[in-house]
Amino acid sequence: MNLFQSEISRRSFLGAAATGITSAGLTFGADQPTALGGVPETTAKRKPRIVAINSVYRLKSHAYHIAGRFIHGYTRNGFHHQPPFELVRMWNHQQPVADLGPSVCDQHGIELCKTISQALGEKHGLDIDGVLLIIEHGDYPKNERNQLLYPRYEFFEQIVEVFKKTGRTVPIFVDKHLSYDHKLAAKMVQTARDMKFGLMAGSSLPVTWRRPEIEPTLGTPFKEGLVCFGYEGKAVEIYLFHALEVLQCMMERRKGGETGVKSVEFLEGDAVWEAGDEERWSWRLLDAALSRCPSKNTGPVRENVLTPQALLIEYEDGTKGSILNLFEQTSEFGFAANIEGWSETLSSCFYLPAPPGARFFDPLTYNIEKFFASGTPPYPVERTLLTSTMTDLAMLSLHEKSRVVTDPALSVNYAAPKDSGFFRGPIVDAG
After folding, report:
1. CA 55, CA 349: separation in Å to the nearest integer?
2. What's the pTM value of the predicted model, to 2 decimals?
3. Same CATH fold, 207-353+385-410 and 10-206+359-379?
4. Considering 123, 137, 177, 428, which has the largest number of Cβ atoms within 10 A of its Cβ?
C-alpha cells in the first residue's frame, strides 16, 4: 500500500501559479484579480465583501497577519497572490499603544466600526459575505488554570445575533481554538450546524510547509504519534494548542478515521522522563522528530531540558499520542509516528518562517479564501473542536497535578479530508 501521496513537482507548481485554482466560482491566481464567476473585477459587479472582528490590530498580531493579507496580498508558489475579496470593515476590541487599526483603515478605505453589528452591516441586512474572527493577543485575564480568557465565544454570539436579526448567515473563520472552555467550543459548533452556516477554525500549523513534504494517505495504520516543540512561558496552552493541531492533522488520517480520545494526562519535570523510560511515550519517535528540526540543540535532551512538559493522549481505538514541550532542545514543531508493518519511522518538521513576515500565515489565509469561496471548510471544524477540548482538559490535568482526565466531550468523530491543504513548493518569492 502506498502510504504517501506524491509530492507536487516544481513544474506543476509553476503551472498552478500561472493558471490559478478555481473553487466555487472564484478564481485564485497570480495573474489577474478575478471575482464572482471568474469575471475580471473591472467588469464584475463587486468582489465578495468580508469583515475582520479583532481583539487588537498591532504589528505581528494575528489580525495584522491574516486581515493584512486580505489587504496587501501575499506570496503563493513564489508569486504575488491578491485575494479576490474586499475587506470592507474592521472592529477592534482593544486599542493598545501600538494600535495600527485607525491608520490601516484610513489608508485602505476600510470602515473602522464601533460595534460588531455595525461591522457586519446589520442596518443594511448583513451586507457582507464572510467574517474573520481573530481574537488573539491583547490584554485579557486568566483563570485559575492559567488559561487566557479570550472572548471568542462572546463575540461569536454577537455575530450570530446579527444573523438571527437579519435572517441571513455567512461563513465564519475563528482563529486558533474555538474557546478556552470546551463546552463553549461545542456550543459554537452546534450553533453553526443548527443555523447551517460554514464554520472554520484552527491553527496555521496543519497547512504550513512540511520538511519533508509528507501527506499520509487516509487509512494509514498509525500506532503512535509524537510532536515535540519548544515554548517558554506561563501560558502553556498557547503553543500546546498548535502542537495538538500538528498531531491531530496527522493522526486523524489513521485507519478507521477519527473516533475520539479516551483520556489526556499532563506531566512535568522528572515525571516526563520516567514516562518515556516506561514506554508511555517513545524515545525513538522523539529522536526522529527532533532530527527534522533545524534548531535542534546539541547534547542529550535530558541534560539540556530543565523543565520538560508532556501531554499523553490515549485515543478511543488504542492509538497513542504524545506532545513534548522541550524549550531548550528545539524551537520548531517536529512530528514522528510509528506505522503498523513499517520498520522505519515517519517524521517531518512543520516549518514556520520567522516574523516579521511570518509566512506561515500565507497557507492559512489561502485556505480561508477557499472557505469563503465555497462556504465549506477545507478541513472539518470537528478537528479544532477536538483540539480545543484536549487543550482545555490538558490544562485541567496540569492544574490538578497530572490527574488522568476522561470526559465524554473528547469523543469527537469525523472524517479527515483527502488533502489536508498544506503548502508545498517554494516559500520565498520567485527570482
Report:
1. 30
2. 0.90
3. no
4. 177
Distances (CA, A) of 51 to 87, 173, 266: 6, 11, 38
Cis peptide bond prior to 212, omega within 30° of 0: yes
Residue 315, classed as helix, strand or coil, is strand
Picking from 313, 308, 236, 218, the residue whose alpha carbon sits closest to that of residue 270 is 308
- In three-state secondary structure terms, 226 is strand
Per-residue pLDDT tens over the stretch 180-211? 999 999 999 999 999 999 999 999 999 999 99
Question: Which neighbouring-strand residues pair with 314?
Answer: 263, 320
Q: 302: alpha, beta or left, given left = phi > 0 and alpha = psi -120 to 50?
A: alpha
Half-sphere exposure of 117 (CA within 13 A, CB side): 12
Q: Which residue has the cell 512540511?
A: 210
What are the residue boundaries of the structural domains of the chain, listed by start?
10-206+359-379, 207-353+385-410
CATH 1.10.287 fits 207-353+385-410, yes or no: no
Note the pLDDT of residue 233. Answer: 79
Pairing of strands 333-339, 222-229: antiparallel
**Residue 201 has which C-alpha cell?**
477554525
Q: How far apart are CA 343 and CA 392, in angstroms?
A: 35
Q: What is the largest CA-CA distance in the chain?
A: 66
Put the strands of the sheet holding 346-351 in their side by side order.
Answer: 209-211, 346-351, 333-339, 222-229, 320-325, 309-315, 261-268
pLDDT confidence tier of residue 235, bands split at 50, 70 and 90: confident
Q: Which three cell numbers mark 273?
A: 522522563
Quick: pLDDT tens for 274-289. Answer: 999 999 999 999 999 9
Query: Cβ neighbours of residue 141 under 8 Å, at least 6 residues apart?
Result: 148, 149
Instruction: State how beta strands 86-92 and 111-112 pair.
Output: parallel
Contact between 101 and 107 (Cβ < 8 Å): no
